[in-house]
Amino acid sequence: MFQYRQVLVRMRQGDSDRDIGRARLMGRNKAARFRVLAAAQGWLSPDAPLPEEAAIAAAVGGARRARSTISSVEPYRAQVERWLEQGVSGTAIHGALCRDHGFGGSYSAVRRMVSAIQQSLPPQATVRLDFAPGEAAQVDFGAGPFLVDPASNQRRRAWCFVMTLCWSRHQYVEFVWDQTVATWLGCHRRAFEWFAGVPARLIIDNPKCAITKACMHDPIVQRAYAECAEGYAFRIEACPPADPAKKGIVESGVKYVKGNFLPTRSFRDLTDLNEQARRWVVDEAGRRIHGTTREQPLVRFELERSLLRSLPAIAPDLGSWQRVVVHRDCHVQHERVLYSVPYALVGKTLWLRATDGCVSVFHEHQLVATHARARVPGSRLTVPEHLPPDAQVFFAHDRAWCLRQAREVGPACAQLIEQLLSDRIVERLRAAQGVLGLLRRYEAARLEAACARALYFACPFYGAIKRILKSGLDQAPLLLPIAPEQPYGANARYARDAAALFGPDPTTH
Fold this sequence. Notes:
- By secondary structure, the protein is an alpha+beta fold.
- The protein has helices at residues 2-12, 17-22, 28-41, 53-63, 77-85, 90-100, 107-120, 181-195, 223-232, 248-261, 270-283, 297-304, 389-396, 399-409, 411-421, 429-437, 444-456, 462-471, 498-502, and strands at residues 136-149, 154-165, 171-176, 201-204, 211-213, 220-221, 235-238, 320-325, 331-334, 337-340, 349-354, 358-363, 366-372, 380-381.
- The strands form 4 sheets. A 5-stranded mixed beta sheet has the order 3-2-1-4-7, sandwiched between helices. A 4-stranded antiparallel beta sheet has the order 8-11-12-13. Strands 9-10-14 form a 3-stranded mixed beta sheet, with no helix packed on it.
- Helix 15 crosses helix 17 (444-456).
- 25% of the residues are buried.
C-alpha cells in the first residue's frame, strides 16, 4: 500500500489526477476514485496525519465490488478438491469433468478454480537440514542417455548412479545398465573407494534393490544391502514413501548431471561415458561455486575427507540374496544358470547368495552347497554327490568305468564289453553296466566263463550271459562248433544236403 501513501502525499501537495498519472504512480481514473475515497476519510487535510498502510488497505479493500458471477466449475468443487488431494493435474481434472460429468466449460475455468482452492489452503512450510562433515551422504538413480549395449547390440537406456556428500556436495557419478542388487552394491563399493572413506549414514529412496518393503516407520532392508552396511559400518536411512524432498541434495545433484553434463557431450559407449563423467566431476562440477554453500565442493571435501570413516582393511564380500526353489532335477536357478543341491531338498525353498566369485545355497541357516560363479546363461554346474544314489551310480559307471572293470574280470569279459560299447546302431551302455552288475551275485571267475561261452556262440548280450549263469552252463565244457540249422525241413523242396555243405560228418567241419 506504499503506492497509495505516495499518491496521497502528492494529492496533499496539490497535484492533479493528470499529474499523478503522468508520474506513473496511478492511472487518472483510479486516482480520481482514490481522491473521492481519501476525501471521505479525511486524509486530504494537510494537518491530518498520514494513515497507516493497514488503514488504507482496509478502506481500499472494502471499496472493491464483489464479483457477481459464479464459476461454472462450482458444482464440482468437492470433486476437484478430492482430486487435488490425490495430486491430479489441472488438465486431467478438466478432461475427467468433460468425459464423466458432462462439463462443458473451458480449461481456464478449471485452472481458476484450482488456483483458488490452492490459495485457500494453509501454506506448506519447510526447513533446511544441516549436516556435519562426514555425517551423511545421499544416494539416488536417474535416467541416463541411450547407448548401444554390446551384449545385445541394441540401443538401451543407461542409468545414472549418484552419491553426494551432504556437507561438501562432492559427488560420485557412474552410469550403469540396470538397477539390480549386484549393480547397486558395486556402485556403493566404488563410491566409497572414490571418496576414500565412508559417511556415517546413507539417505536413500526406496528402490527394490535396497528396500524390500517401504514404510514410514519400519522399512525392511534388502538382506544383501544390510550386509553391505554392516561391512562398511554405515547406517541406512530410507526416506518415507513418496517423499523425495527428504533427499533433496542428491535430487539436485542428479538434475545437475542431467542438465549440465549430458546435453553438451557425445559418447561412444558406456566406458567412454563414465570416463568423461569422472573428469567432469573433478574438473568442472567439483570446482564450481555451489549455489547453496557458495564454495567449491572439492575445497570443502578436503576438510571433510579426514572425518569420513576409514575403509575396512579387507573389502566386504558383497553378495546378493535370492529365494530359490529346488527343481526336481536337484538344481536351483540363478541368472539362467543351474546349480546343484542335495536331492533331499527337492521342492523346498532355499536362500541363494551370489557374489562375484561363488554361489552359496543355504537351508535353515545351514550351508548346503557351494559353486563357482558361472557367467554363461544355460550352464549347469552339478556335484555328483548331490544326485540321488541311483543317479550317482549311473553317472559314475560310464564307458571308461565299464572298460576298467571288465579288464579286471578277465580278457573274455573285456572283449564282450568292448563289443557292446562299439555297437554302431544301438547304445548298449546299460547292457554293459548290467553285465558288470552280475558281479554282485556271481564270482568274477564265473562271469569270465560266461562271457567266454557267450563269445564262443556269438551271442554277446546281457540276457544270454544272465541265462548262462542262472543255468550253470558257465561251468560246463564248451562243445565243438555245430552245423547251422537248416532253414527248411529235410523233405522240403529247397532243402540242401547237409553233407554237401559240411561234409560227411558235420561235427568235423
